[in-house]
Design brief:
The chain is an alpha+beta fold and about 250 residues long. The protein has 8 helices and 9 strands.
Length: about 250
């Protein structure tokens, strides 16, 4: 058998202009990635400077007095049978060893509110400060947003025939006054403020306490935080999140 002659194939040098172009593309790609990363950091920094209103509810202070629900009813003249803010009550144990728990409820003013997506006329919107609101003049009362809310926070006003819910009392907040329910709570269980302001009480509570939100797994990013003496308390009451109060004021 004849042996094949081994030939050393040397790679042909890349033309200089192609080599230079490759280097430029590489540098350009790195520069673009750096620019995108830089912009993302700037955007993140800018977002942290924006006002983001939230509510912190300290269940250790809540006595279930319903003052918040009454204040809300009065502030907005909410009709009987419906509510913007209420206190869910639940009882555990057997008589005579029973214990009552209270869970104040309201719109969670989520960062990813599903109610906005389902509105066919864009009546529901979110302000830059996080408050989710409804334009009364645009709402057609189709009720699509009511079941879309995973927190059962919306209702159809039987008189106006439009959807309504908690607004964080933005008409008060814009004038430097806290929401009516916060102002009325005798136990100071409700705390309202800007979570992006490190000096605010809500920011300090969120940073220092084991705060919880309702149904975090559904991805709505709710901005109503709860502080509980028992870490399992909210979990015990979550099964009743879709249920309204025992009575309507």
């Amino acid at each position: 058998m004849k042996k094949r002659n081994k030939t050393n194939h040397k790679s042909t040098p890349e033309p200089k202009h192609l080599s230079e172009r490759r280097k430029m593309l590489k540098v350009g790609t790195i520069g673009t990635l750096a620019a995108i990363t830089g912009l993302a950091k700037v955007a993140s920094a800018e977002d942290s400077k924006k006002t983001r209103y939230v509510m912190v509810i300290d269940l250790r202070r809540c006595s279930g007095c319903q003052s918040c629900a009454i204040a809300c009813k009065s502030e907005f003249e909410v009709p009987l049978g419906v509510w913007r803010s209420w206190v869910k009550e639940t009882e555990e144990g057997k008589y005579p060893k029973t214990k009552r728990h209270f869970l104040p409820r309201l719109c969670n003013h989520c960062d990813n509110p599903p109610c906005i997506e389902v509105c066919p006329v864009d009546a529901t919107f979110q302000r830059p400060d996080g408050a989710v609101l409804i334009n009364d003049d645009e709402c057609i009362g189709c009720e699509l947003c009511i079941p879309a809310c995973p927190y059962n926070a919306r209702y159809l006003n039987p008189d106006k025939k439009i959807a309504e819910k908690c607004t964080l009392c933005v008409h008060r907040v814009d004038n430097g006054v806290v929401p009516s329910c916060v102002n009325t709570c005798p136990g100071n269980a409700r705390i309202f403020g800007d979570m992006n302001d490190p000096d605010s009480e809500v920011a300090k509570l969120i940073a220092s306490e084991k705060v919880k939100v309702l149904n975090p797994e559904i991805g709505t990013d709710p901005r109503v935080y709860y502080i509980a003496s028992d870490d399992k308390l909210i979990e015990k009451m979550k099964k009743e999140v879709k249920v309204g109060p025992a009575y309507a004021i």
